[in-house]
Amino acid sequence: MIIALDPRTGRAVGEPISESTEERVAAIVEAAATAGRAWRVTPAAERAIVLEAVADALMASADDLWRAADTETALGEVRLRGEIARSAGQFRLFAEVLRDGGYLDAIIDHADPQLTPPRPDIRRMNQPLPGVVGVFAASNFPFAFSVAGGDVASALAAGCPVVVKAHPGHPVLSGLVATVIQAALPEPELLGLVQGADAGRYLVQHPAVAAVGFTGSIHGGKAIQGLINERPDPIPFYGELGSVNPVIVLPSALNGDVTSLATGFAGSLTLGVGQFCTNPGLLFVPDDDTLLKAIAHAVSETTGGPMLTPKIRDGYEEGVARLALGAAELAIGQEAAPAGNDAVAGNNAAVDESAAAGDGGLAGDSPAARGGATAGDISGNAGSAVPRAFVTDLGSFADHLPDLAEECFGPAALIVKYRDISRVGEVLEQLPGSLTATVHATDPAEAEQIIDVLTRLAGRVIWNGWPTGVAVCWAMHHGGPWPASTSAAHTSVGATAISRWLAPVAYQNWPDTLLPPELRDDNPLNVPRRVDGRR
Q: What's the pTM?
């Protein structure tokens, strides 16, 4: 049985939930596959209408949803209402993507008998993957990266049915959200939900599952990849894993508002108790006492709070201990007040982020490690984190790689002092892949020597901002080289996230009447196409 815990108190929430058996997982996957046969051939314009109906249903249920989410996550009303709106916005974005038609990447090369060798008529476009998409929900975004998340929205948009492995940190909410979405679908079986650690294994290895999306830890991602490798037919795996998100403050930034720079960093570091994989965990700064004092003051003024699950809290403490071994403590924030009558209003950070935490509950982990609890595993001790900042110099940091460059998930960061910016570039070359890399400067020319390394290091590079803001839009790329993601060419946020659940099919010399409408000569749906090499 799965028992959710209130992060503020450590007490049980709701009724125990049964873990899905292998037979139950198989039945849900097979029902989704059956419903998916009609869904994959449903015209894109009709799928768009359904996605908008899902968005409307989420917003109409917001009052009930945020309250249920707060009980299991302690994230607060403002944050959770914002996240519901973000989730609805993702469904609406993919409705726009479907109506635009560019996601099909339709290409036509007419036959040319004059070429050597002669060219046949070839027409190509993307089609939905032939099966169910399995999705592992994340802990720290109970809507936007969970049952109502971008993986689900993009897969449904592509024409694929979905089965979600609920995160044990919010199992009750997962069921409620699934019910809301299912009611808006033409067939409720298009979205299935399974619960429990073993259910993840059964889901990944079911033969009807054609691809898997995951947001969580490196450990969890490797475990899923291992399960996929055991299949007789390995399938695509799109995982968003660990990221330290380096920020480089260049010397010219000292000519600007140093206090605002420091408070901006502290705010980004502690947003949502630091439980974002775009959290700025590594800050390179000039060796300047004024800036260091401003950072120390800003961090000391921040307040911690309850972390989402016991596993995340334990991982944070381990990460802090690792940083303390290789660096000196610069500042420590304030402890959160005990949960009281205003607990629901706690941690009302704005939700302008994406990312994840926790491994989603894989087979082989203990109940505590899975982030939830069993009937014999309930503790009355809620897990709260205190913000921390550590400091070291560039040489010492380089000597302690890779340990000091490992992600510490939570409100902790390492500040690295440097004297020579050219040495910073050399050290950046040694860092693991990241979702983001940020530069703060007032002189653009100053950044020229590190641009190349940053664009090889991260999937998104930011100028004079902070990484904890991932817009849901057409141009967004939320991915990066390993271990930020398992496929640097793909994103889990934004319009092009749909491409993960599509595969191209080429039609050679087919009669026009048998072609998909998007590839017919008259182009009745008016989709954008490349014809004989021209747009």
A: 0.90
Distance CA 307, CA 128 (A): 38
Q: What is the pLDDT of residues 14-42, one digit of tens each?
A: 889 999 999 999 999 999 999 999 999 99
With a pLDDT cut of 90, the percent of the chain lying above it is 86
Residue type, 162: V
What's the confidence (pLDDT) of residue 257?
96
* Max CA distance (Å), the chain: 80
Amino acid residing at 135: V
Name the catalytic one among 72, 160, 189, 277.
277
CA atoms of 170 and 39, how far apart (whole Å)? 29
**430 Ramachandran zone, left/alpha/beta (phi>0; psi -120 to 50):** alpha
**Could you tell me the end-to-end alpha-carbon distance of the chain, in angstroms, rounded to an integer?**
56
Annotation marks residue 473 as catalytic: no
As beta bridge partners, residue 165 has 136, 194
Peptide bond just before 117 cis, omega within 30 deg: yes
CA 96/CA 428 separation, integer angstroms: 38
Report the SS3 class of residue 214. strand
If DSSP codes are grouped into helix, strand and coil, which group holds residue 212?
strand
Residue 240 annotated to the active site: yes
CB 385 within 8 A of CB 408: no
Tokens of 498: 């749909």
CA distance 91 to 327: 44
Write out pLDDT tens, residues 369-385: 333 333 323 333 357 89
**What are the strands, taking DSSP E only, across 201-327?**
209-215, 237-240, 246-249, 282-286, 305-306
Q: Which of 2-6, 166-170, 186-190, 480-484 has the lowest mean pLDDT?
A: 2-6
From the candidates 19, 240, 407, 518, which is the catalytic residue? 240
